[in-house]
């Protein structure tokens, strides 16, 4: 009987220890964290333009790839749910004409995307590989527009939807590395004047950037 009691007590203690360890692990995972590192920004551009109030057929644009530094301020609610606010050092993109606008250098745009997103983290039990998916909203602020071949070239601030996928690999309890991919669906209103005293041009530019980043994670 004593042996049975001892076995039951030991089993209960082991179960309690495992529960406490799991709770402690969850507690370590929860809370605030920072991420930061280089990011590549790769556009899938297009355009729908009107000149002098009439459609301008065949008009298109191209946007050069950009590289910058991106930062996340995140909060992990529990093992599976987290939220992030993403910002970065504003890059400058060259916007050039394509199609019937080929050869035209429309202008330069300095922009600052800000992203608010929620993530679902797949529990793997392995801190070296913690994959996640996410979704959210993006607000891209245009900080500066410089006209080139189009006088008065201007791009408006714009909202867009975001999907996200990535993973984290923790080196220890506080520090790790991450790899992250975000797709943004983004259309921005544009306007300008073709040539000196020429007709006004207005329209919508499709940008749809893909953000690919990596860097360090630090959990508080």
TrEMBL record:
GO biological process: transmembrane transport
One Pfam family it belongs to: OmpW
Entry keyword Signal: yes
GO cellular component: outer membrane
Keyword Signal in annotation: yes
Keywords: Signal
Cleavable signal peptide: 1-24
Domain of life, source organism: Bacteria
PANTHER family, A to Z: OUTER MEMBRANE PROTEIN W, PTHR36920
Family statement drawn from the similarity comment of this UniProt entry: Belongs to the OmpW/AlkL family.
Entry protein name: Dibenzothiophene metabolism operon protein DoxH
Originating organism: Thioclava dalianensis
Phylogenetic placement of the source organism: Bacteria, Pseudomonadati, Pseudomonadota, Alphaproteobacteria, Rhodobacterales
């Amino acid at each position: 009987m004593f042996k049975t009691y001892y076995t039951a007590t030991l089993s209960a203690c082991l179960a309690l220890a495992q529960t406490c360890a799991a709770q402690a692990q969850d507690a370590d995972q929860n809370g605030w964290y920072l991420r930061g590192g280089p990011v590549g920004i790769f556009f899938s551009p297009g355009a729908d333009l009107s000149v002098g109030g009439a459609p301008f057929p065949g008009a298109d644009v191209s946007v050069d790839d950009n590289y910058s530094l991106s930062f996340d301020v995140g909060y992990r609610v529990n093992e599976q749910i987290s939220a992030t606010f993403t910002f970065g050092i504003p890059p400058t993109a060259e916007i050039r004409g394509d199609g019937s606008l080929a050869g035209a250098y429309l202008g330069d745009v300095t922009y600052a995307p800000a992203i608010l997103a929620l993530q679902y983290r797949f529990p793997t039990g392995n801190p070296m590989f913690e994959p996640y998916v996410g979704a959210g909203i993006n607000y891209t602020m245009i900080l500066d527009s410089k006209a080139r071949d189009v006088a008065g070239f201007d791009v408006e601030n714009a909202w867009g939807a975001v999907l996200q996928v990535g993973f984290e690999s923790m080196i220890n309890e506080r520090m790790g590395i991450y790899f992250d991919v975000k797709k943004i669906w983004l259309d921005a209103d544009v306007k300008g004047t073709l040539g000196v005293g020429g007709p006004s041009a207005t329209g919508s530019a499709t940008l749809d950037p893909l953000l690919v980043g990596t860097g360090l994670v630090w959990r508080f």
